[in-house]
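Student: Please help interpret what follows.
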Amino acid sequence: MIRSKNIDLLMDSHLEGKFSLEEATVVVGLASQCLQYEPRERPSTKDLVATLAPLQTKSDVPSYVMLGISKDEEAPSIPQRPLSAMGEACLRMDLTAIHQILVMNHYKDDEGTNELSFQEWTQQMRDMLESRKRGDYAFRDKDFKTAIDCYSQFIDVGTMVSPTVFARRSLCYLLCDQPDVALRDAMQAQCVYPDWPTAFYMQSVALAKLNMNKDASDMLNEAAALEDKRQRGGKG
């Protein structure tokens, strides 16, 4: 498809006419690289930013405006089922309670998201895990800007992908009053672990902070449903 330049078949309808064929080809090619099986063959976060930044012409326009999504000012609907402690904290947008829950949960939900070969235990790998450890200490101690920096170092290496790190950095961004970036990290957590309730809970809080209350309520209900399913049938 890429070689025959049928890029329009691959492009989201919201983006039609907003990018040249050359720009669209760059984006599709980058997406193809991100889907490579071997982590080392995928672009790093720095490479992604370096490639995509020149294409961003409306950096001051919120993503929901570019996508044509209306900002819903109405109060969120009542959750459809009883909520867990995490669900209640997200409903109240109690970032302190969410922080305590993420600290207590540690990395228990990351099991199985990474399989590393012996050869991948390089010095770079050790440095990356050290960055994550420093981020964990900063996160625990509520030094959220330092946590963002350390977690970003971990993510930028790209050898290991952790949904928990994305969820933690998402909360850090919320606590630093950056809900747009927080939403993006919560969505990244979902990409790594598609049925993880925490990823949906974090998206619901970020959406609520952006005053997209209906979307936030829908996401909260979806998170609660996933959590209920998980408790009934085990992980996933």
Notes: Residues 102 and 183 are 17 Å apart (CA to CA). The chain has a mean pLDDT of 80. The chain is about 60% helix and 0% strand. The radius of gyration is 19 Å.
